[in-house]
Design goal:
Two copies of one chain form a homodimer. By secondary structure, chain A is of the alpha+beta class. Chain A has ten helices and 15 strands. The longest helix of chain A is centred in the middle third of the chain and has 18 residues, at 126-143. At the A-B interface, helix 3, helix 4 and helix 7 of A face helix 3, helix 4 and helix 7 of B. Chains A, B: Plays an essential role in chain termination during de novo fatty acid synthesis.
Chain lengths: 402, 402
């Protein structure tokens, strides 16, 4: 039962907080008690983090649709069985080319990068990477036979009215896979501090074994009645701890706090409106659209010359179809490479690991990392409410921009 | 060699005509001779249909990247072999779960609908369907070992400077597959009139064998020097005809001509601008974005209550990243169901096939097809130039809109 822990997990990453601007917060129960509150992303979050009842209904309905056994029973009158999703734990999924390994704790799937998953430079886009992370996390849960058990909640979580919500995601791309590349994607879960859970991923090239992408995400528990974050009860820890692996896809130092930008930032895109095609099956703007909005705020000439090598997302609030969104972006002053002539004067300030392996200082400067801080927020009456904060790190493309 | 015919085919569907507004038409050779002109989409197209030299360069580069053998040779210095694409004909592609069947003329691939490929109603979107059609067509070509041979041109085509361009696409959805559904997709080519080629597709559910999607597309030859459409030389017909199957995914009557709309149409969306993420590997706005623009012009309440059951696209001109696009849309007056009360007075006008199988007149009206005509055009100086004309057919959703 402990492998129920990852259940619904990535689902929640796209849906975890409801948009009060569009939803009005009606129907939610709130509690003013703070005895069980926890700190996430450096701030105590209570009311702003709300998992809507609609989410639960929505997922429940999809679970019902997806829970037919591998060998489908004869269709009932007026109903067609169209699924091939196990309700019991499976170790092999031939159609998805997936395996459960390491005694059930690690999921591995083989995929090929498709023609429509690459951008103008013929490599997979960050959006594709995020899509594949979501897909493999959900498939991991499916193969555990647990997608129908209540959003991955363990018995102890159900007893305590707890559900999972995602608070943070960090994706590092070492190399973007190219069109037609065969990928092996691994995902697993682990502990995160006293009250959280991690889900990590590794994406490798089948031919070379090279790691292309490393990713980690953090999940916390929320009381679905009070809509407030919760500590992890000892009872629940006892259930899920045996399924955790102490293996980190990314060796992170202490989490750097992402500062909150205001509208004095260098780049501001206002009046961004979700389209119907931006909504996922939970009727919220999907995670990939968030990243698209963030990146489109950067100037085109920058995007042509640079490649995104890392993105960190701190989720605050979900965005619904009727919200109007503002995307704000600010470069780190000390991360912007010196403009104009590259002279030796700049040499001493270069980090040794940046210089190492490069033939010249000019090469090293080409690789100089450039960092940006991002904020997506929505208008709620006279003020703004944060949807997600972001940090991106870029490196200069080593080839001519097409 | 004849199976070279489908080569690059779907590629071209996304790139076949250059945007004169953004590209200025420089560098193209044009001929005023009309001896070899053909009629496409009911009109003789000459100068407006231009395949750019950049396209060729672009695809050539991608072909070079993709042409490593199944068993990769040791990487050359400074170069990594990351592909797993056959350069010789294969009958099985284990990673894509694909087979070449019927003596090499039919390609079949098994796929699972992914979590991010479904919309708010948890069924695959039309965009997903179009993506999968593109993917399987390209994979068919890859498995033929011909992706590196010059855009699918046969020896006779190369001798005559001919390439393939797509002129029309028709997709009929009988049922949208749902999240997690296992699909078998078949694709093959056939003749189309005297000078064209068809590529057809069938998408079926693995469990039920039901047909979900039928699609057909039409391709013609263009002289890559004069940029003008060309008749199919007898020499080329002799090469490719043996690979054609006389099997139609859709039994079409004579192609209905799509009328050209003007700005007096009911719905007009102007100033649509492609984003960087809308560009495909050929640096043009991709086919899926066209359809998104078309559909987003329809009112939201209509989209909530109706499901797209058929789309026909007639391609005229490609759209580049700097173009400003207008999407125009007009409902067929006689296809809009009667508003207000449904009375028996309307009965006699219902088509028998619509009534057949329904329990009541109200049910029948629920299924009344609704048709729209579409036009995407771009501003080129003072006038507009057509990108694509479209026709969509809709049916009322049988379930409550979420």
């Amino acid at each position: 039962m402990a492998s129920a822990s990852p259940c619904s997990i990535y689902c929640s990453s796209r849906v975890f907080v409801r948009c009060s601007a569009s939803e009005g917060g009606q129907g939610y129960h709130r509690s003013s008690s703070s005895s069980n509150a926890v700190r996430v992303n450096g701030a105590a979050h209570r009311a702003p983090l709300q998992v809507g009842a609609a989410l639960e209904t929505s997922i429940s309905r999809s679970l019902a649709e997806l829970s037919s056994p591998v060998l489908p029973p004869p269709p009932a009158a007026g109903e067609r069985v169209r699924q091939n999703i196990p309700t019991e734990k499976q170790t092999v999924d031939p159609f998805r080319q997936a395996l459960i390994v390491e005694g059930g704790v690690r999921y591995q799937q083989t995929l090929v990068v498709r023609s429509y998953e690459v951008g103008p430079d013929k490599t997979a886009t960050m959006e594709t990477v995020l899509n594949l992370l979501q897909e493999t996390a959900l498939n991991h849960v499916w193969m555990s036979g647990l997608l129908g058990d209540g959003f991955g909640a363990t018995h102890g979580m159900i007893k305590n009215d707890l559900i999972w919500v995602v608070s943070r995601m960090h994706v590092q791309v070492e190399q973007y896979p190219i069109w037609g590349e065969v990928l092996d994607i691994d995902t697993w879960v682990g502990s995160s501090g006293k009250n959280g859970m991690r889900r990590d991923w590794l994406i490798r090239g089948r031919n070379s074994g090279d790691v292309f992408v490393r990713a980690t995400s953090t999940w916390v528990m929320m009381n679905k009645v009070t809509r407030r974050l919760s500590k992890m009860p000892e009872e629940v820890r006892g259930e899920i701890a045996p399924w955790f692996i102490d293996r980190h896809a990314i060796q992170e130092e202490a989490n750097e706090k992402i500062i909150k930008l205001d509208s004095n930032a260098k780049y501001v895109d206002s009046d961004l409106k979700p389209k119907r095609s931006d909504l996922d099956m939970n009727h919220h703007v999907n995670n990939v659209k968030y990243v698209r909005w963030m990146l489109e705020t950067l100037p085109d000439h920058f995007l042509q010359q640079h490649q995104l090598s890392s993105i960190i997302l701190e989720y605050r609030k979900e965005c619904g179809s009727s919200d109007v969104v503002q995307s704000i972006c600010q470069p780190d002053e000390d991360s912007v490479p010196p403009e104009g002539n590259v002279s030796m004067v700049n040499g001493p300030s270069l980090l040794p690991e940046i210089i190492s392996g490069h033939h010249s200082l000019a090469d090293a400067l080409q690789q100089w990392p450039t960092k940006y801080t991002h904020l997506l927020q929505l208008k709620a009456g006279d003020k703004h409410e944060e949807i997600v904060r972001g940090r991106t790190t870029w490196k200069k493309k080593s080839y001519k921009a097409p």
